[in-house]
């Protein structure tokens, strides 16, 4: 869409200008003849004022009488100031070839200086050559050299009576694609639907039309009651995507309706990628103020959430700008004084696999929760979502108030981005606790512990605090394999006592706790505790089991299982395909031999232990389930992978499961994904 804002540069007749204003002359002090400046000295003084945009100084002390007669002070100063502002003129630089040494200057002859003018404008750099002429004349008893000026020193084609326009062209917004070039946020088309009140049977058709547009009858009333609306005026109501063919056909059949094709941003994966893509929408007053001078206007669309907002500068591209000189003769073509073509926004390619993400999202069946998947060989992020999502297509031209209130009141809170948040990870953290103990030498995977009973308390001074295990029928001794297979909390609590509070804190920090996750979108950091320390043995035990005050980000949780494939390395989780793969974030967390021991136990945890829901015929899943209590119930987890073809590690959490519900819900949802993706 072209936007034109005319800068009126009409140079009025010199007699009219001279007669309409009083010129305030700034008269240089008369010098004795032998001390008068040479034309070159005066020329250098003039261009110094010029480069500093000191138009008042230029006019008052350096212009010939003829120039002042043709262009009054108000026109010369205010006009050029306005030009600089409207056309974005800055960094003006004047160069010239220095005259030969000893050149003689005749007061009866003009002094000519060939000059090169360069400047930056909103339409890009401008460069041209002119000849600046100086005349020796007397002004108010002061004899000196003065400059002959005309509009061609602004632009070479500019003449008296011309009109200058600045024309802006919006670039095509860049798109967001997945790793396989599947569209996530793309440019499409839609249809603006409106009505002409005089031709529309409001009483009979308003409710039908509102239903087809997914708005309320009250919102139609609000549009029709705007102050500017007249019976014969077209009143826009809403925009529908072009693919809504059934609704558009029914709308077009209603007398008084009209449709106009408009460009429209599209989000083909809808809710499944809503918190990743975000959406564009009408620019707010606050955003307009923040981006003042960047070419945004009140009716523009701008990234409002997600990558659309984070990558706004890259996606928006660069406006095209032309500075046009329009001659006053009828039928004359405008002259392009400067031009900067529009530059399309970048195509952003994500590491996300949109189809895999869609599969995981559908497996969640609308339950509240979050999920992430990483490639253990590269660190690439393949899945990252929050469930439930929302339809970003509804926000592009401004979501209706009723629809937005419905989202806000939804008890599952679809507007909340769960993958950016943190939650207690429960027993899915046990393999990490094991790795820390193995590296410190306090945990021998083959050594079994004698554990009896359902609960355990190290010393009576623990008071009412006891560690409880899920299964107390497992035959002793309990080694690391049995502890992982049966999620034995007492085993890991006892190992934590051997590790010690400070050493466990240090070990968790080596896994990335307490520091910013190196990711291009904001993620809350995983924490060991509120203070980053462990104040008691009870807190030590809880933390080793993923409870207490421990909080983990879902992407970080998936990445913490990478060392069991990489012999101790966690890769930086990448999000853009342009990023280098395999960048080391953490290293030397476990050796290859012990990593294999843990992988074997994680396979047995699914094949022999619990959760049974993840035990699939033909798909050898390995992984760890877990639950963590919260004030509304329990968060249910599963972190797993296909042990034969570990293409990705999937971490999945379902929020606020009631305590009497199936604790294998997350494992069952994950199993659906691996079954579909084998």
From TrEMBL:
Annotated family: Belongs to the transpeptidase family.
The UniProt record lists the keyword Signal: yes
Signal peptide: 1-20
This protein's name: Penicillin-binding transpeptidase domain-containing protein
Residue ranges constituting the Penicillin-binding protein dimerisation domain according to the UniProt record: 169-324
Keyword vocabulary terms for this entry: Membrane, Signal
Keyword Transferase: no
Residue ranges of domain NTF2-like N-terminal transpeptidase in the record: 39-162
Compartment annotation: Membrane
Gene3D superfamilies: DD-peptidase/beta-lactamase superfamily, NTF2-like, domain 1, Penicillin-binding protein 2a (Domain 2), Penicillin-binding protein 2a, domain 3
Record domain Penicillin-binding protein transpeptidase: where: 370-673
InterPro entries given in the database record: Beta-lactam/transpept (IPR050515), Beta-lactam/transpept-like (IPR012338), MecA_N (IPR007887), NTF2-like_dom_sf (IPR032710), PBP_dimer (IPR005311), PBP_dimer_sf (IPR036138), PCN-bd_Tpept (IPR001460)
